Amino acid sequence: MTQDFTIRTLGKCTVASPLILSKIEGDGIFDYIRDEERILYSTSLQKVQKDFENNDTPLSFERPGPKELLYFEPAKTKAAIVTCGGLCPGLNNVIRGLVTQLWKRYGVTKILGVQYGYAGLNPENQLPFIELNPDIVDDIHKTGGSMLGSSRGEQPASTIVDTLERHYINILFCVGGDGTLRGAHAIHEEIEKRGLKISIVGVPKTIDNDINFIEKSFGFESAFAEAQEIILHAHNEAKGAQNGVALIKLMGRDSGFIAANAALAVPDVNFVLIPEMDFCLDNPTTKNGFLNHLENRLRKKKHAVVVVAEGTGQYLFKNEKEIKDASGNTIHNDIGIFLKNKIKNYFSQKNMQISVKYIDPSYIIRSIPANANDSKFCAQLTHKAVHAAMAGRTDFLVGYWNSYFTLVPIPTATQKRKKIDIEEEFWWNVLESTGQAMHMK
Amino acid sequence: MTQDFTIRTLGKCTVASPLILSKIEGDGIFDYIRDEERILYSTSLQKVQKDFENNDTPLSFERPGPKELLYFEPAKTKAAIVTCGGLCPGLNNVIRGLVTQLWKRYGVTKILGVQYGYAGLNPENQLPFIELNPDIVDDIHKTGGSMLGSSRGEQPASTIVDTLERHYINILFCVGGDGTLRGAHAIHEEIEKRGLKISIVGVPKTIDNDINFIEKSFGFESAFAEAQEIILHAHNEAKGAQNGVALIKLMGRDSGFIAANAALAVPDVNFVLIPEMDFCLDNPTTKNGFLNHLENRLRKKKHAVVVVAEGTGQYLFKNEKEIKDASGNTIHNDIGIFLKNKIKNYFSQKNMQISVKYIDPSYIIRSIPANANDSKFCAQLTHKAVHAAMAGRTDFLVGYWNSYFTLVPIPTATQKRKKIDIEEEFWWNVLESTGQAMHMK
Amino acid sequence: MTQDFTIRTLGKCTVASPLILSKIEGDGIFDYIRDEERILYSTSLQKVQKDFENNDTPLSFERPGPKELLYFEPAKTKAAIVTCGGLCPGLNNVIRGLVTQLWKRYGVTKILGVQYGYAGLNPENQLPFIELNPDIVDDIHKTGGSMLGSSRGEQPASTIVDTLERHYINILFCVGGDGTLRGAHAIHEEIEKRGLKISIVGVPKTIDNDINFIEKSFGFESAFAEAQEIILHAHNEAKGAQNGVALIKLMGRDSGFIAANAALAVPDVNFVLIPEMDFCLDNPTTKNGFLNHLENRLRKKKHAVVVVAEGTGQYLFKNEKEIKDASGNTIHNDIGIFLKNKIKNYFSQKNMQISVKYIDPSYIIRSIPANANDSKFCAQLTHKAVHAAMAGRTDFLVGYWNSYFTLVPIPTATQKRKKIDIEEEFWWNVLESTGQAMHMK
Amino acid sequence: MTQDFTIRTLGKCTVASPLILSKIEGDGIFDYIRDEERILYSTSLQKVQKDFENNDTPLSFERPGPKELLYFEPAKTKAAIVTCGGLCPGLNNVIRGLVTQLWKRYGVTKILGVQYGYAGLNPENQLPFIELNPDIVDDIHKTGGSMLGSSRGEQPASTIVDTLERHYINILFCVGGDGTLRGAHAIHEEIEKRGLKISIVGVPKTIDNDINFIEKSFGFESAFAEAQEIILHAHNEAKGAQNGVALIKLMGRDSGFIAANAALAVPDVNFVLIPEMDFCLDNPTTKNGFLNHLENRLRKKKHAVVVVAEGTGQYLFKNEKEIKDASGNTIHNDIGIFLKNKIKNYFSQKNMQISVKYIDPSYIIRSIPANANDSKFCAQLTHKAVHAAMAGRTDFLVGYWNSYFTLVPIPTATQKRKKIDIEEEFWWNVLESTGQAMHMK
């Protein structure tokens, strides 16, 4: 994996910023961010020290913030905002933050809202732009969802760039996840091919929190907070019956961040199962399978709480027959329902009476408004996105790493998805909390 | 249906109440409730007038409350509490309310908690009683679930009465729904057969709010409030996609009270489907089927919110094949998943691109703590249950009708389940709110 | 007190309702409400029986609902909505409910929103009307407050009627409390004097729930639910310190409904003090003053929770000196701060170390959105207000009594304020819950 | 300021850890933390680079975590937990986390809970220890407050060490703020003087988030989240009246972290006033005082939201007369009430009618349970506290810096309080959000 952390720019910055900040330390006024300011990738003294000893410069990210000189002249700048993919708490805060920062801090008053994701940039779909201003977005942060609507799926980059050209758009803010950001990069490449001066800004959105080089993305905390509430109450279901098992399936296709964070937040969770781990269900020999441990737990405490991420244990299905529903559609293997049945069958064979309560909150955890910390995060995130865009940065996204906001080239962030490293501290912290076996095999 | 509203008693009340109340109006002290105080069943002036003109006494309920003379002597009384069936917000408030009222107001200090429903009254299950007192229950109202645990299913009445006799229990509070209350009546009959003086008190619990002669049962408001939250956010999912349909399945096996009340509370709901209504899915002739109306809504507004109670439209399944899961278990027909597929297929045949977001909160709405109004209700309900029990009433439950608490004989309340009458005002109010067609056929 | 429950009408109804309802029982379609349908005031069998025996007709309210014939022709009707007085949860639900019922059910499409209360009906204030329609009000129920703004204070009835005439307004919905409703009646009298055909509709709003003949008004449950949350957490403050006293002041100028209901909802409350009760602070002789009881509680349990309504115990201040603040303004005597100081001084004189945590949530409990039950209530309430208005009723408000909506003449409802009768059951229920002495004197 | 980041230890670690972790990278098992692992203080590439160029080692913190060898033998170890100072969300999570980590991970089963802060370590106060175990703490995280109670104030270090000796306590976890931690250091010094081997562990608790070298302390996010809710609704009060001003006072004696973070989380805030800033109220010349800006805002937008931290602008009071209440107690100058009056007087002199709604949530924001992110934080924090204690570290606290947990010597952390640097990025982010003037003078 090449880790290129250099941010592309559209050209030289020559326009004085309307933000009257300082270049002097100690005058009580925030200083413009200088281009050379960078945030270290590693905070380990040993790692950084070793780099310097080897005459390597440690990995680092460009630090975003207000610049003394801009690339775009605010009065002549036109921006557009598009939100793509599934809903995520904070989308409306992001739209509101971008609009107010552009309008009130920089004086950019031509701002277009694109309807229903990239589809809204393809004229075939006949989705008119929404003209955005501070009044229109004034109250939207109080509601979940996206005021612009969203959609999945791609549109041809050339069509989108045609649209950007036709509407004289200078900056396009693409709010979305992995696929959206790859799409944004393709748009950037088409722009570059045509020699245009349009900035493509990625605002990373992933409810699974699985974008690389991004410690946390907006909405993730709100989502696992909602999951926490559900698990706290599910605990009542588990305790409400003899040998009660509350089984909660949470989002997380390729990574278990929501499940693992929710488990850390609710000490009542006894088992958390995530895509990053291999485990066996029932190992009669070692007694070290998940169901064996669940049996021990029930025999000892009479109830258990199990959290499973949706992408967990896909290998467990390989021997399962395809099931079809009434209309002939294949019912996809669902780890939640699969586990529910496996648990029931296991204890039924043992003649042990149990009661499984299966809970699948699905969209419930993603359609809520952003909580306080995410709202704050969205405010800061969007301010930085606008600063970088106005300074002519392009093909980047605004990241967050070691408590600092950063700039990351889109191709670098989308090379692969972030996952929980089960050898690293975070997963160990989860195990400390649940008390489950390190490996269930 | 015989509507016998006479409450049975164990015998003559001769013990002075420790509650020092009044028998004089206007002295600023609440008056003991006299045996003849009754609450009218109907509040319609016309109906009541007609009864009197026909020399009939209008239907009425006994009014519960503190009595001047008690049947049981507090110092010698032993009470037990059992919670049965599915969880419901407020169970812990009920347990707490019964314990504190018995202990602090009446001085009854022998109170047993039965574990895991009626199972805990069958010695075979080896579930010891929990000794209850105000300290043990002090904080339980802050948590959902039941501190005693619960279970479904019956135990032989004779075994239960053996247990009551063996433990010298004078009053058994049975907190549960239809089945539990029928069980309580069977226990009462066994007690009567044996000539014992044990009071059987029903505390009606039904998250579906479908017990007859009971306007509202505890926990119901909390449950539909939780449903409201989920629907409010589901609305964001509907609006977040082109032709987005949020489809939410709510509890309600035989009646649609949760679905209908939630729909009244969220004006964003466009269609609510309940077991009490007949409807057709797609009527190409009249264009008056549910899917036809859904199509109109989407063409006009581009999104829709649909709420369906779980027991709705069972007749729609009659032509469906049985489906089996991987383990060979029959997958029961689920109206939510059925509708999701029908909606998808309908619009797919019309080449109309839609996006269905299916949400099934299941246990999420019943494992929460009671909200404020339910907490208040539980306090009042349990106070009345204790007053009536101490006065030797038996085979009754504490009801609520026209804003007053009442006493209802258990057999009368369990003759049939309460349902929404689609010709009555409540359902009309729902239709006024959703704007859906009166009949979709 | 004359209890005239006859609703005035503008004239004969001759316009066919656009609502296609039924007049036949048993056809599965809701029936139009007939003019003679009435709801009994009392649900006591004995009281009603006695009335009939004396050949009196028992007190009753007109039942609101859709009528077969209307007074106003929808296409020609213009309505206006004004919200007055302090905020209350549900104001936006009321505005939304009126607008959608008028527009979608009746086809009334000329609806004006009056800004900032009655002030907006006085041209001097130059507050233009807001044109209301279903789109504008679509999302407002998700937010507390009033989208129209509000204000206290009167405007000359003649000026207001001039405005109504000038704008051809046929129906004015006045959402407000006691003062607002008296104002509405004055407007009605001016209208009558001029021989106009304008319907004046009161929608009762009182966070104190103290309007006469109205069991509960919208927003009240949301308010005491918010109070419940605050008290539940205040309990932690009380328990967090040795001899911790959490003292919470709640709204309630003339009546203690919020305080008493919140106390019933939170069994952790040990004392609730309301305007309707007389009590003495410290009675060294009887040991029956509030502070004497508080001392007992602390000695026994080491913590206490006290709830006081703001209008409580005004007679206690009569010997207090006036206090002025830095600007020379009189600091009004505040029962919360007064009690805090009295508690501190009492225990300081006893050399007993205590810790008082004083909490005054003030506006916090009234600026929130309506909860689920209030939202449902607002929907039903506004539907009925519109039905009655379209049928030419005037000078009335929509009440709620014994679980039914009613119509009440404004002068009857505003003759005096509703209060808690400390001899009646509700207050006794509160005492059962807190366990405080019946009288502290 | 000396910045000594070396953590003291009680002696050589010789006991094998019961945690079976790894020393090999890549085996899928978390590795023991080596003593030399350290976290950089600065993440600025430039600053760190400059240090290395100057042959300085950059500032860094010891990294906490499980060690291969322990100082204390678990079976013989006795721990005690004390919670001091004001309540803070998460106290119960901390108690629960310490107990379960000690008991379940390390096998330490002698754990004492100290009642009511340091007072519980002074035998004079006759406060018996509470024996703690996983069952007792099982549900406490669901409730705010501290199950142990708390108190302010010191006790003689020698008395406390006498108690520790008398009860053979090996580890004392002191959960508290600045004063508590200074107290902990004094205890440590007394222990050292006596040559004892007792570990003193600080768990930093500050609702103001103002402990030095600690990026965030537990409960802080929950507190500003509660503040966010209150401000969001206060916004409704501001908009509900003509020229409505919602003025919210939040905690923050010496620093404005809660106020500033809440303002970032609620974009509706127009002005935030904190102790770290100097501002003038009314400057008729420059028109750059707070009240001048407030006037502009009201003239333009008709409403405003103002947040003020309680410790703000103490210099403004210097000319105020002392006010005494009815009992002769001095009423302390309160910036909230002071501002409310100043705002009223200013606009009254300008004959501009406004409406100020003053909200002081006081204890409401600190007595709630921890939210999800704080709950997770408490779990990780307490795990690390236990690891470090078992490894014989003493006189330290567990910090958090740049997204990593750290160890900080107590004297270093308590040298001075953390404040918002108004020249740094965080305050600028707040200004970007509120849009208020950089300096109001």
Describe this entry's structure for a reader:
4 copies of one chain form a homotetramer. With 441 residues, the first copy, chain A, is of the alpha/beta class. Chain A has 2 domains: 8-218 and 370-413, Rossmann fold; 220-367, Rossmann fold, CATH 3.40.50. Helices cover 32% and strands 17% of the residues of chain A. Chain A is built from 11 helices and 19 strands. A 7-stranded mixed β-sheet of chain A has the order 8-7-6-9-10-18-19, sandwiched between helices. A 4-stranded parallel β-sheet of chain A has the order 12-13-11-16, sandwiched between helices. In chain A, strands 1-17 form a two-stranded antiparallel ribbon. In chain A, β18 and β19 (404-409) form a beta hairpin. In chain A, α2 crosses α9, α5 (220-239) packs across α6 and α6 (257-265) packs across α11 (425-434). The two termini of chain A are 31 Å apart. Chains in contact: A-B, A-C, A-D, B-C, B-D, C-D.
CATH class of the largest domain in chain A: Alpha Beta
CATH topology of the largest domain in chain A: Rossmann fold
Strand content of the residues of chain A, in percent?
15-25%
Helix content of chain A: 25-40%
Multimer state: homotetramer
Number of strands of chain A: 19
Mean pLDDT of chain A, to the nearest integer, reads 95
Number of domains of chain A: 2
User: How many strands, which pairing sense, and closed or not: the largest β-sheet of chain A?
Assistant: 7 strands, mixed
